[in-house]
Design goal:
By secondary structure, the protein is α/β, with parallel strands linked by helices. The chain contains 11 helices and 13 strands. The protein has a domain of 195 residues: NAD(P)-binding Rossmann-like Domain (Rossmann fold, 3-Layer(aba) Sandwich). Helix 4 links the parallel strand 4 and strand 5. The two termini are 39 Å apart.
Length: 307
């Protein structure tokens, strides 16, 4: 994975799964990374990675944001909107509008802003017609982030997976379900491919641009679970018709949208070659990584037993 050609200081609102993976890559390339998280335990974990983290949420604004952003060259937000809107912009929008020195601003959004297309294709020029409240709030947040100076880059992420957060771990934990809704497909993206897209954009800024970040292979969730079971040598769970599936309202809402998402722009404008163009390659890499870790642990145990 290539690193940005220059080094800088990234401040990230919301150092979650994706942003932390980005931070690791940037720190390895000589960057400084700071940002926010929501609790002290997470703050300690980030400190061990070399990340200066400050507590922030809707009810806890940053006390000295101007000081925290002094020397920051790049800013990213992965904080989703809540019932009242975008917490970052609601609490610090005026502060961010005063940061004229920023070279790059990024906002992690979702392909949910396109709404339901009954299995049809969308690209970045498609009409934005979110079908639910979550998608509508994302679209409103996007429009707010575009009003900053410079305007934010919008990254519309498909379903994120990667080591520690994939169908492999779901199957291993015994929580896998194969839910079938005829014709339903989802687009996905491996976290490492999100990271390389973000770093490519940071190297070649185009303020105000929107990018779909997804792989080449929209597929049904049942197929993904079945492939994870195949890799693990396990019998796949029985297929459950969507109408009979016991899902939370949140989980059920994900099935409201059915679309295929084009990723041509990240390839054409950012020069991206996907590390994992399909969930198959992504799950294989995760499975192989787990197997490698298990072998290393076993070898270490064997050496300890012999000593």
């Amino acid at each position: 994975m290539s690193n940005p050609s220059q080094t800088g200081h990234l401040f990230c609102f919301g150092l979650g799964y994706t942003a932390t993976n980005l931070a690791r890559q940037l720190i390895a390339a000589g960057w400084r990374v700071s940002g926010t998280c929501r609790d002290e335990a997470r703050q300690g974990e980030l400190r061990e990675l070399g990340i200066e983290a400050h507590l922030f949420d809707r009810d806890r604004a940053l006390a000295d944001i101007d000081g925290l952003l002094t020397g920051v060259t790049h800013l990213l937000s992965s904080v989703p909107p809540d019932d009242r809107g975008d917490p970052v912009l609601d609490l610090h929008g005026d502060d961010l509008r005063g940061q004229q020195h920023l070279q790059w601003i990024g906002y992690l959004s979702t392909t949910g802003v396109y709404g339901d297309r009954k299995g049809g294709w969308v690209d970045e020029s498609s009409e934005l017609t979110p079908s639910g409240m979550r998608g509508a709030k994302r679209l409103a947040a996007e429009r707010q982030w575009l009003q900053l100076s410079p305007p934010a880059h919008l990254f519309r992420l498909a379903g994120i997976y990667g080591p520690g957060s994939s169908a492999i771990e779901t199957v291993q934990a015994g929580r896998a379900k194969r839910i079938h809704k005829p014709g339903q497909v989802f687009s996905r993206i491996h976290v490492d491919d999100i990271v390389q897209v973000l770093m490519a954009s940071m190297t070649h800024p185009s303020p105000g641009s929107a990018y779909n970040v997804c792989d080449d292979d929209p597929a049904s969730p049942a197929d993904v679970i079945a492939y994870a079971c195949e890799l693990l040598g396990r019998q796949p769970p029985p297929v459950i018709p969507f109408a009979e599936a016991e899902l939370s309202p949140m989980a059920r809402s994900f099935y409201d949208d059915n679309k295929r998402v084009s990723n041509d722009r990240i390839k054409r404008e950012l020069g991206i070659t996907l590390l994992y163009p399909s969930y198959r390659q992504g799950l294989e890499a995760i499975h192989n990584g787990i197997a490698d870790q298990q072998r290393k642990r076993m070898n270490g145990k064997n050496r300890a037993d012999k000593s």
